[in-house]
Amino acid sequence: MKGYGNMGKLEGKIGIVTGAAMGMGLGTTKAWLHEGAKVALFDYNDKVFEAAKELEAEGYDVLPIKADIADKSAVNKGVEKVIEKYGRIDLLANIAGVIRIKTFAEMTDKERDDHFITFNGAWNLCKAVVPHMIKNEYGRIVNMTSVTGIIVVDVGETAYGPAKAAMWGFTKALAIELAQYGITVNGIAPGYVATPMQQQIAKDSNAANPDAVTDATAAATPLKRLADPYEVGQLAAFLVSNDAKYLTGTIVVIDGGSTLPETWGAVGGIY
Question: What angle in degrees, to the nearest 10, is found between the helix axes of 196-205 and 210-220?
Fold first, then answer.
């Protein structure tokens, strides 16, 4: 609810969140709003307007923008609308993603390429937003990657894994280039999160009984549950706040401990 606490850690900041109509995008949007930011919600789905309407009814300052992030022209126009309304952009969360569980033999070239909307969309948003951040000598970017592709991989993820792995490399490379301008770039690598995308994974894995897949996934996680999208959003809020101003090029794992057997050599799940 509006008025959550006193001054939020993002008070007065202007942010863009992609994939903001649902799932981790909506969770991040809510977390940023609760911390005092004004947020432009980017999504290709008409549900972005429903989400914005509900948030406005709670008293938040939001701007819904329907845009395909794979379309550079649509992204540029959307960013122009944000600048027109708010005058600047301080924060960017590249959350939008695609997943379809299919084996390498089954997957078409188009389905493969669709997975890279994650990377191409983040690229387009950064191309449009970063010049404004450089001009203001300030910016905070957070990219949504995954534990899949770098730490673990499952059957049916020959496209999803590489797409998410690309986000790891992009985050670190961009962080090096933008540090000189006072811009930080960090990433979040979730495990299983209770989102519509997770529900799709469960259906793709077992159409007859997707709930069984979700229950088994939760049971196999040390914390015995899936993450709530808002918990991921809270991490995103931290990473773009002044509390994290000395962090850049870092990927933070939030997976309830599910990849601990694979990451025994890492320190604290941070890369």
Answer: 110
Tens of pLDDT, residue by residue over 209-245, are: 767 777 777 788 888 888 899 999 999 999 999 999 9
Do 42 and 20 meet the contact criterion of CB atoms below 8 Å apart?
yes
d(CA 89, CA 65): 15
Sort 193 into a burial class: Cβ within 10 Å, 0-12 / 13-18 / 19+: buried
Strand, helix or coil for residue 157: strand
pTM of the model: 0.89
Sign of the torsion formed by the C-alpha atoms of 121, 23, 12 and 81:
positive
Specify the CATH number of the domain 14-192+228-262: 3.40.50.720
User: For residue range 52-70, what is the model confidence (pLDDT) as tens digits?
Assistant: 999 999 999 999 999 999 9
Exactly one of 86, 160, 192, 271 is catalytic; name it. Answer: 160
Single-letter code of the amino acid located at 166: A
CA–CA dist 201, 16 (Å, integer): 27
Report residue 199 CA to chain centroid gap.
Answer: 17
Q: Is 160 a catalytic residue?
A: yes
- pLDDT tens digits, residue range 98-130? 888 889 999 999 999 998 999 999 999 999 999
